[in-house]
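The protein record quoted in full:

***
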Amino acid sequence: MEVEKVFHMNKGEGETSYVTNSSVQKTMILKAKPLVEETIIEFYCKTFPKCLTIADMGCSSGPNSLLVISEIINVVATTCQKLCRPSPEFQVFLNDLPGNDFNTIFKSVPSFYEKLRKDWGNGFGPCLVAGVPGSFYGRLFPQNTLNIVHSSNCLHWLSQVPQEIENNNGSIHLAKTSPPNVFQAYSKQFYKDFTIFLSSRSLEIVLGGRMIIIMLGRRYSDPSTKDCSFYWELLARSLRDMVSKGLIKKAELDSFNLPYYTPNIEEVEKIIQSEGSFNLDWLETFDTDWDNSEDDQNRSDFVYDKIKSGKYVANYIRAVIESIVVSHFGDSIMDDLFSRYAEHVGDHLEKERSKHHSIVICMTKNNNQPSQL
């Protein structure tokens, strides 16, 4: 599987599109908002750049694509008003893999500009938005050009499926039954990818620039615990159901693994320190319910409507990974697969309310320069 070529969120605005199924990601962004605002204010008041250059890595498409950018611009504009300073210009770069639905983003840009003018008047900005297709596991921008880098819900996706994990039979990720070499391979691939990401951004960010990352992680050191990615085990269970029914071949399942890894805090800190280009300003964590629908705020230890909750979770997981699954199994099984998956998720959530664990990181570019990439 060539991840860079096949991976993208579901396009369009239909029932299984990312546009329709990205409220969990929005909740994660909003939970991190106070931390992001504090970082932006602190940076801006130290530097007062005439042009604030912002890059959002892994922007995807839909309502979340310009959400963080709006937050950053609004907090800078508010700060300018309080300090009676003129507004800087804003250069915004939206990055994702080439298969991303950039057209949907670009169609929303005129209304984004119009809202900024309405909120802040003619003396604001200007704000200029551009798309940058390509993998963030490598260089994307000229040296020393970015002030702020943001990435939300992306860096747990690896650049590739780890090598030499052919013995991970019956699983599609890390599971209790996975052999030790599989855990080692995933950890090694994350270490390599995150190091490349840091080194690449270090060359592109100005001295003293900030980088803010929100990524899914895990609470415990053991990557096979249920809190890490049990939703993948439920998807593997759905695929095994289809193998037992003769709908897909066992060899197809055995050869399929996801390019996905959720680190714990210690791993993240170790890699940042080892790479050496950034000072770690702060690191926070928070949890978000699998079922984060607005009409399900009772927050008991289980869900009351397992059918609704199962479909809700299945739809947003499908919106994220369908392109990867289709590249391996074809598209003819998708409706059946995610129908089964919704049932397994609903049965699970009827017994316990599971949560995603997020890590929020803020770093400052220091004087240490990595070797040229």
